[in-house]
Amino acid sequence: MKHCQPGILAQVPRLARYLSFTLKPDIDSDTIRRLVREKLNHEECVVGFGLELVLALGKDIDGLKPFPVLCGPGFTVPATPSALWIWLQGDDRGELLQRCRGLTQELSEAFVLQKVIDSFQYQDSRDLTGYEDGTENPEGEEAIKAGLVQGAGPGMDGSSFVAVQQWIHDLDHFQSLPQTDRDNIIGRRISDNEELDEAPPSAHVKRTAQEDFEPEAFILRRSMPWADEHQAGLVFVAFGCSLDAFEALLTRMTGKDDGICDALFRFSHPVSGSYYWCPPVKDGELDLSLLGLS
């Protein structure tokens, strides 16, 4: 789709760096407007605006809202909002580092770098558990339908809403389990990626079967593994024409509708959760008209 940021529909890059920024206190809106207009572009990255930033500009984006805080037995799904999210994409870690440094300096008058997560492709886009990630991802026109706003008018068409979470896996615990248990947690056989009809109702695949919702809850996943010297997991990234499908999936995972929690929580938990609006592109630049920055 010609009006969307290209990085949304592109294949997941070999390497990436996720940046989140907060606003400096008492910063004036004119400074924010100038920096956003002059310093942000969509080349080799995806840019998302949090509710904090939209409100600071005195605007409203229909459909953008706070990330929900949800709890279940032994776990919490937290909300960690930020003003600005940038997903840098590439294949050279040093080059991503330099781009991050440059953006941080250019935006420093109004924005404070809150968090940086380095991520990477693992094998053929697998999660670090070894299971394929995003098997049921929509493709082609279905990806556009699920992931991008359409029919809402100029400034909105081609935009997308994105949910971002950082999950930490206890890989030692997961790998200590018998293979049958691991397959039942995911709901697929690792050997051939086939869905298990006999998997328990808590299996992740069964909890998040997008076609089983009313309306159907299809999202466009662009998740990537991450790791540091102490921990590892998944940066879950889900683009949508709205945030409704993601919230339906997350609510089902936490057992709010039937009391059955997703088995993923046996070995993994999220430590962050944020929503952003990713503006469309017009004439080769971000279309910021709905934010009064055109």
UniProtKB/TrEMBL annotation:
Q: Which Pfam families match?
A: Dyp_perox_C (PF20628)
* Cofactor dependency: heme b
InterPro entries under this entry? Dimeric_a/b-barrel (IPR011008), Dyp_perox_C (IPR048328), Dyp_peroxidase (IPR006314)
Gene Ontology CC annotation, any one: cytosol
* Record keywords, A-Z: Iron, Metal-binding, Oxidoreductase, Peroxidase
In this chain the Dyp-type peroxidase C-terminal domain maps to 124-281
* Keyword Iron attributed: yes
Source organism's superkingdom? Bacteria
Where is the secretion signal located? none
Any one GO molecular-function label of the UniProt entry: heme binding
Q: What PROSITE patterns does the record tag this protein with? A: DYP_PEROXIDASE (PS51404)
Q: What is this protein called?
A: Peroxidase
> What species is this protein from?
Candidatus Thiodiazotropha endoloripes
